[in-house]
Amino acid sequence: MLTLFGKICRKLRIDNGELLKEMADKLGVSSSYLSAVENGKRSVPHQWLETIAETYSLSKIQKRELKEAIEESQLTMKMELTGYDNKEKNLIMAFAREFKDLDEENRDKIRSILLNSKKGGE
Fold first, then answer.
1. Where are the alpha helices (DSSP H) in the chain?
2. Is residue 97 in some structural domain?
3. Which of 20, 55, 65, 122 has minimal CB crowding within 10 Å?
4. Rounded Cα–Cα distance for residues 35 and 10 (Å)
């Protein structure tokens, strides 16, 4: 199934008269790898945001849309845990393990806590 990232890439290719292979060459990967990323079978490499934005001269708005599409299309997430004590690491890992089992009400509560915390820290 084509991800939002895949749809944006396809549109870029159409707008630039390119084939999948041509975009893959610009990204330094095989066409099968690019296809797997576009179809959500592989995560989008982190450096692709800048590479695509520069290669296709994206506007700030287009780059932001691409960034959002990449974030939405991600299959996995890495998090640097340096600087966290064991109690904090355990909380982070518990959240990651249990997130899928949270109901919408609890997700909304957590979202609210995080957004309010961010506003207070700005």
1. 4-15, 20-27, 31-38, 48-55, 60-73, 86-98, 104-121
2. yes
3. 122
4. 10
Same-domain check for residues 56 and 13: yes
Residues 44 and 103 in one domain: no
> From CA 48, how far away is CA 104, in angstroms rounded?
32
What pLDDT does residue 104 have? 95
Global pTM reads: 0.68
CA distance 61 to 90: 38
Per residue in 23-78, pLDDT (tens digit) is: 999 999 999 999 999 999 999 998 999 999 999 999 999 999 999 999 998 877 77
65 is in which domain, residue-wise? 4-73
